[in-house]
Amino acid sequence: MVHGVLCKPGMLQGVLCKPGMLQGVLCKPGMLLGVLCKPSMLQGVLCKLRMLQGVLCKPGMLQGVLCKPGMLQGVLCKPGMPLGVLCKPSMLQGVLCKLRMLQGVLCKPGMLQGVLCKPGMLQGVLCKPGMLQSVLCKPGMLQGVLCKPGMLQGVLCKPGMLQGVLCKPGMLQGVLCKPGMLQGVLCKPGILQGVLCKPRMLQGVLCKPSMLQGVLCKPDILQGMLCKPRMLQGVLYKPGMLQGVLCKPGMLQGVLCKPGILQGVLCKP
Prior knowledge:
Layout: E1 11-12, E2 15-16, E3 21-22, E4 25-26, E5 31-32, E6 35-36, E7 41-42, E8 45-46, E9 51-52, E10 55-56, E11 61-62, E12 65-66, E13 71-72, E14 75-76, E15 91-92, E16 95-96, E17 101-102, E18 105-106, E19 111-112, E20 115-116, E21 121-122, E22 125-126, E23 131-132, E24 135-136, E25 141-142, E26 145-146, E27 151-152, E28 155-156, E29 161-162, E30 165-166, E31 171-172, E32 175-176, E33 181-182, E34 185-186, E35 191-192, E36 195-196, E37 201-202, E38 205-206, E39 211-212, E40 215-216, E41 221-222, E42 225-226, E43 231-232, E44 235-236, E45 241-242, E46 245-246, E47 251-252, E48 255-256, E49 261-262, E50 265-266
GO cellular component, one term: cytosol
């Protein structure tokens, strides 16, 4: 038996496979997957001489398409043609490319990608001195935004300001931080994130000796759970136990496995 299915001699996956059968389908000589394959047949399709996958391939044919000399994939390719498109000299992919042309676009001197680029132009956009990306950048400007002294990204930053927010002495991100404060929260000695942390406290939870995360951990206690000898994660483990399930000889994962049994399923020869 396989997977609890009876497998007699000559059976595959519980299906009777007599001689000459494949997966319960009769396969006589010359058959493939139960389809009759005579000589010169491929996958049950008649393949005469010069045939490919049942398509007639005469001389000069590719995949059943007539390919005369000078043809590619049945498309006429004269000299100077790729893919059947006429490519005269100075042509690129059948597009007329005269001198100073890029991809069939006229590129005169001073042009970039067919766009007129005079001196002082970037990508065909006029860039005078002091301009960045065609945005006028006067002295003291950043990305076309006026940046006077004391400004950051166009926001006025007076002395004591950070990103336009007033930061007086003792302030963090515009929040008043007096001595003993963290992020604007009053942190007196023994306080963490505004929570009172006395000695032996963790995150505001009282941690006495032998405590873990505020849970009492006496000897033999794991994660606040009593762990006597022979216990794992609070489960009693006697000799011969696996995961708290009694495993006697001949058992697998607490399931009785006699000779000839696999995972508690009877497997006869």
